[in-house]
């Protein structure tokens, strides 16, 4: 029996504080509660939810079956402004990258990936990131602020609206864009509840994946949630020495602490864990690394996603050669570890893992 240790909890920092928060912050239950608080009938909450997620309107005035006074009240208290699309780029493989402007001028990137099994959106949870991984572009400018739940939801709504034109739907979500989702934990969980709701976008929990760099106290929290979403951990190295060099977060939560939290997660949920392992030439891609990795995770029900390092101009990691990638894979497989090499998408538009960045700050745009 693995026991949850008594460790210092982490808080969600850098929350925005808008006078009129996004209406997309509210779950269906929140909307129903709001209506009862305002002395309205409960069903008004369901109507608003339907306008937002089935009809996907972006103006309270379009919510035709609501009394004008209620539409005005909503307008006065909440913002429905969707994100402003500044740039939409399409890759030769169909991957699309969206640059969105937030209400306070910051910009974030969101990616739509096309697979034969459906359309997947890679959402951003923070403006920038403060984790400081030495290979990643998202962390270069530090963290400006967390996103509201509604700003994460809006990314999916906006992309769904783009897909509406061709009668397609968003079928899965990966919480793997800019930022560390476990440093914006409560809004992230709220986001999941909203997009998961079957009267709304109805994205099944099993089609949602969250990835963390290893914020251990939040892994315990996540293990105790009653939700069936997929869980990925950016591991990238089998020893503390290597991992701390690649990911400074390892100095706060080392591999032993991380593994304990993952064993607890597996005990609580019974679910498989995905490990992301970027192959950085000469750093963590030798046979002995593969053997150590296999030994480290052998007691977990898991899968390893090998990611050939993506080029980030400010970073000078080199890619492991193709043959060596497959040798690494074979070593893992031979040790009984389930592993695959991640298929790359959107590299020509800098939309691949680790290439996303918060483009410019509020000050720089002057808005
Ligand atoms: N902060 C979360 C979510 C980001 S997911 C996390 O760290 O898990 C994006 C994945 O891409 C992570 O596994 C990240 O470590 C990886 N990544 C970052 N930069 C990369 C690069 N240059 N090449 C390949 N993968 C990279």
From TrEMBL:
Cofactor: [4Fe-4S] cluster
Molecular-function GO terms, alphabetical: 4 iron, 4 sulfur cluster binding; metal ion binding; rRNA (adenine(2503)-C2-)-methyltransferase activity; rRNA binding; tRNA (adenine(37)-C2)-methyltransferase activity; tRNA binding
Gene3D superfamilies registered for this protein in UniProt: 1.10.150.530, Aldolase class I
Binding site for S-adenosyl-L-methionine: 179-180, 211, 234-236, 310
Enzyme Commission designation: 2.1.1.192
First-listed, main subcellular location of the protein, grouped into a coarse class: cytoplasm
Superkingdom classification of source: Bacteria
Keyword Hydrolase: no
The keyword Methyltransferase belongs to this UniProt entry's keyword annotation: yes
EC main group: transferase
GO-annotated cellular components: cytoplasm
GO biological process terms, semicolon-separated: response to antibiotic; rRNA base methylation; tRNA methylation
Additional detail: Reaction proceeds by a ping-pong mechanism involving intermediate methylation of a conserved cysteine residue.
Functional summary from the UniProt entry: Specifically methylates position 2 of adenine 2503 in 23S rRNA and position 2 of adenine 37 in tRNAs.
Protein name as it appears in the record: Probable dual-specificity RNA methyltransferase RlmN
Organism: Salinicoccus kekensis
Gene: rlmN
């Amino acid at each position: 029996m693995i026991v949850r240790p008594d460790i210092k909890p982490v808080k969600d920092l850098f929350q925005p504080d808008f006078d009129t928060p996004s209406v997309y912050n509210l779950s269906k239950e929140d909307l129903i509660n709001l209506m009862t608080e305002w002395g309205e009938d409960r069903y008004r909450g369901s109507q608003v939810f339907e306008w937002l997620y089935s009809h996907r309107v972006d103006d309270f005035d379009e919510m035709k079956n609501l009394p004008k006074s209620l539409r005005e009240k909503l307008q006065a208290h909440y913002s429905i402004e969707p994100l402003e699309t500044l740039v939409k780029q399409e890759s030769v493989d169909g991957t699309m990258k969206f640059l969105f402007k937030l209400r306070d001028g910051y910009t974030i990137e969101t990616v739509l990936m096309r697979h034969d099994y459906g359309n997947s959106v890679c959402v951003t949870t923070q403006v920038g990131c403060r984790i400081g991984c030495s290979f990643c572009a998202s962390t270069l400018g530090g963290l400006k602020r967390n996103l509201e739940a509604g700003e994460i939801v809006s990314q999916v709504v906006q992309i769904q609206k783009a897909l509406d034109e061709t009668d397609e739907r968003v079928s899965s979500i990966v919480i793997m864009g800019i930022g560390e989702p476990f440093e914006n934990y409560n809004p992230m969980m709220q986001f999941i509840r909203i997009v998961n709701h079957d009267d709304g976008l109805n994205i099944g929990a099993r089609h949602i994946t969250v990835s963390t760099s290893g914020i251990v106290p939040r892994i315990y929290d996540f293990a105790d949630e009653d939700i069936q979403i997929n869980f990925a951990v950016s591991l990238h190295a089998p020893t503390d020495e290597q991992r701390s060099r690649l990911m400074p977060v390892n100095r706060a939560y080392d591999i032993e602490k991380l593994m304990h939290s993952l064993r607890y997660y597996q005990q609580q949920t019974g679910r498989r864990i995905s490990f992301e392992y970027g192959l950085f030439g000469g750093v963590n891609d030798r046979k002995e690394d593969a053997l150590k990795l296999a030994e480290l995770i052998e007691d977990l029900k898991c899968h390893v996603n090998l990611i050939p390092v993506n080029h980030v101009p400010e970073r000078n990691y080199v890619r492991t050669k193709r043959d060596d990638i497959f040798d690494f894979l074979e070593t893992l497989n031979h040790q009984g570890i389930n592993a695959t090499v991640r298929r790359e998408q959107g590299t020509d538009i800098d939309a691949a893992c680790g290439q996303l960045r918060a483009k410019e700050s509020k000050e720089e745009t002057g808005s």
